[in-house]
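HOLO CASE FILE
Compound: magnesium ion
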Amino acid sequence: MRTGVSVEEARAIVLDAVSPLEAERVPAADGLGRVLAEPVVSSRTLPPADCSAMDGYAVRTADLAAAGPDAPVALSVAFEVPAGGHAGRALRPGEAARIFTGAPVPEGADSVVMQEHVEAGEGRARFRAAARRGDHVRPAGEDVRAGDRVLEPGALLGASQLGMLAALGRTQVAVRRRPRVAILSGGDELVEPDEPVDGGRIVSSNSYALAAQCREAGAEPTLLGIARDTAADLERRLRAGLHADVLVSSAGVSVGDHDHVRPVLEKLGCSLLFWGVTMKPGYPLVFGRFAGERGTLVFGLPGNPVSAMVTFELFVRPVLRKLAGFAALSRPTVAATLVERLTKAAGRTHFVRVTLARSGDTWRAMTTGNQSSGVLRSMVLANGLLEFPAEATELAAGAVVRVHVLDPEVFSA
Ligand code: AMP
Ligand code: MG
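Model generated. Tokens follow.
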């Protein structure tokens, strides 16, 4: 097992340990937010035939060549083509067909004139302008042609993709299975949110923050509850999580007398790949995997609420996204101007909780105040994590810094 790896090394190790999960077929109507596991090739042409883009009259442009404001041309309205219907016959010279939006243009017609530009009378229609070939006609295949590859594997299914699947008549679609994550908290001080907090108890808030982070990353969390600070209880509960793709525990990874996570994982047969990442918050992160191609991956996150959430963001989230088949694994980053001076010792990468605000076309980043890893408020207030590089010791006020955007809503503000 390696210790004291850099953030970049840790990221490479965890991502190297995973490949996308198998595909499953789901009703396309339930596909929102899922990742496509197959290419979608159209068996249809859309629109299936040349069709009208307007309510009006289908005409032969040759018939209207001489039409002008003072030289109206009258055509006989031979038949009508409603949306969803079709012309029984071709349009002959001297004829127009009444046509509605979406209806197929009859054979022989090569243009549609909007009804607003037509003087309609009993069985006849008068035109005071020439028509151009193709005007207001949507050609067959304008959208999709049979054989076109319209969606690629790895595409995130959103509204437009689901609309396209429906248009192609696809009611089932192959998507990546969602990763299953088992979440365990550990500590004798921990209780559930509805339990009393006397005697120095605190609520196991990590269970809930981490479960939400899992869902946000497209995974399905299950809570394994709270393990007591004994090796036996920890072992029993960790075993219950070995059915999952990923087991995420928090606390018990430091060097205290009650920190049993590492020895218990090793006893269960988990190979630990690293312990300790040169970052703050979150140094004591441990990562391991059980044997087998689909062996459970284990993240032992530090217990402090901020450390747990930040290490999840940086290492667990990209792993879950890779399992779920996403092409983009990381949060977007922006370059922001720091509004205050920051200092630290060299050696560890700091992830500083900041509030990003737009000012003109630049971003400004200000810290959320107390950066202690126990201050969950710093996460509540933050919409970004400023990366203060390992070897740097100072960031001047006005420096341009890199910020990982935690909350995509900042882009709409
Ligand atoms: P530990 O790693 O057990 O030393 O825990 C570090 C700190 O994180 C302690 O102050 C714990 O009380 C706190 N902590 C551990 N687990 C949780 C949890 N599930 N929810 C909130 N705080 C926690
Ligand atoms: Mg503890």
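CASE NOTES: Residues 77 and 121 are 9 Å apart (CA to CA). The chain has four domains: 2-22+178-323, 33-44+145-176, 51-138, 333-411.
CLOSED: yes
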